[in-house]
Amino acid sequence: MSAPSHAPESAEQPEAAAAGVKAPGGRGDADSRSLRQIAWQRLRKDKVAMVSGVIVVLLILAAIFAPLLAKWFGQPPTQFNQDLMEPNSGLPYADPNNTDPAPGEMLPAVDNWGGISGDHLLGLEPKTGRDLFSRIVYGAQISLLVAFLSTLLCVALGTLLGIIAGYKGGWIDTVISRAMDIFLAFPLMLFAIALVGVIPSGFLGLEGNGLRVGVIVFIIGFFNWPYIARIVRGQTLSLREREFVEAARSLGASNRHILFREILPNLITPILVYSTLLIPTNILFEAALSFLGVGINPPTPSWGKMLSEAVDYYATAPYFILFPGLAIFITVLAFNLFGDGLRDAFDPKTSD
Amino acid sequence: MLNYILRRLGAGLLLLAVVTAVTFWIFYVLPKWAGVTPRGMAAMYVGKAPTPEALDATVERLGLDQPVIVQFFDFIRSLVFGDQFQFGRETVECAAPCLGYSFSTNSPVLEQLLARLPITASLAFGAAVIWLIGGVAVGVLSAVKKGSLFDRLAMSTALVGVSLPIYFTGLLALAFVVHGWKILPVPRYEPLTENPGAWFTALLLPWITLAFLHAAQYARQTRAGMLEVLGEDYIRTARAKGLSERKVIFKHALRPALTPILTIFGLDLGLVLGGAILTERVFSLKGVGAYAIEAIIGKDLPVVLGVTLLGAVFIVVCNLIVDLLYPLVDPRVRIAA
Description:
The complex is a heterodimer of chains A (about 350) and B (about 325).
Chain A: H1 35-45, H2 47-64, H3 66-73, H4 132-168, H5 170-184, H6 188-198, H7 208-239, H8 243-250, H9 255-292, H10 303-310, H11 319-346
Chain B: H1 2-33, H2 38-46, H3 52-62, H4 68-81, E1 83-87, E2 90-94, E3 101-102, E4 107-108, H5 109-144, H6 149-161, H7 166-180, H8 196-230, H9 233-240, H10 245-273, H11 277-282, H12 288-297, H13 301-329, H14 331-336
């Protein structure tokens, strides 16, 4: 792992993202490669980033093709297999064909490995006997869906407010910047719990998990936009002083044209880099809410919810903690490493 | 200097006001927009399945049929001056700052929260000590020995650490440390005043688990900050005038590197004090955060409101303390102020 070579934490170093800004018109540099080409070449050399990038792509594919994977390698995620489970301990029988206690034993033998077999690649969920493999694969669906939607909302809000704050300056900038500080200090998880409690079913025509997804996406988007807004504001502050913006202004371009046609295109890369780093945070947030029982509702499989059910089995069935936990861990780590690699690739301070 | 203190105090109060307003909006205005009738809202506040008469009484009592602005003033008045709650024939006094009245426990919310606060506070302070000392120490050592095996190992661990949620590591710790190897007892809360030894051992595992999560982040930040400072000219000057490496690092480099850490620390400590919700749930500790979860499941909304406000107060207070400590750590702030 090449962790030490990574740039310092992003928030402390807005100028690091300046790398993402493409020099418009391309000055007469000896190096004719565009910044994007340079970054791509660097990224290809960064093995950690490439491997995690591949994992990210595989995860997205697994989420999209979850129904197919479940069909080929498992069974539907909501199908119960209670005949395979020993009712007292809630664990799978060691031998489903022989469910009687062995001579001298009180209870029938259970499988300490959670019923892992060719039919059930990751074993069975305690008590219900649902196929863990397909539940994990389906869990990726909801996890990534929530993370992408909420990141999208953060990016939309953050870009809009950040670009306005940076470009307009003055009291508008003061108000927006102050709002960023305030929003970052909010007890986010408490607010999320409260919102889940007060919003009634049927709000905006949403109910059940549609509503839950809506609430989670709203709360993340509404409170985490400052992460993106800070980056965008800093970039806009330096961009608005550049010649090409001045040129546009002297040609009589409207503010809107300058903001969205001149400045915004130069912000795409840093926004993309920092959204990649926001996704894992949002994945963890959804999993945390589901773990607390205020996120995704059963029977829809969710990694966080699975872990909260594993609480009762930590002594008897640790494997049940392991699989959903590893699913979250691998996903978050892959996004973090890929995001770090992406940031370094676009950072001019990193040497080739 | 006084100017600086007043400005930070003002900023703290503003944050508190905004959080209070947003909390009010979430609990009183948003449900209305979402089409909840006053009776429906009363049902969310009373918990248990109530009779229509009881609901109407609650609507009356909480003024849920009043215009929003009237409700807002009532809400603020009760916060600032306290309130009274009729329960059957009894009148319960809810002293200021009244965070509301829990209908399922028939007592003021603040009373309930304060009863659980020692658990959360024990958890938060114990973990904070470990993550601050551990994180900073590892970060400094990593920066000084940049590129060494220790640095690479520590930073890889830190990178893994920020990707490990506590509801995974905590459960693994329970499964192995507590149940499998039986190194530590099942985490629970023992009052510090009664048995300090038991308090310590019973909370050690939650502390370490919670601290690991934060320490990873602090180590990364400290290392980055140290590396930046160590590259500055005045460090070269300090070395050139013949100071020992130890003095250079601890006296000249660490202090400026610590200032951003202090800011995050204030925010993190405030957040954890307002309810280490996940940690409390994982280790079944009955702190403030666990209470919020119980309340949301038991439809005891005033408690959730109370916890949210209390959490905001902790964040504001911790930030304020950090702001006031800043001039002591960073002379530049003193001069600017």
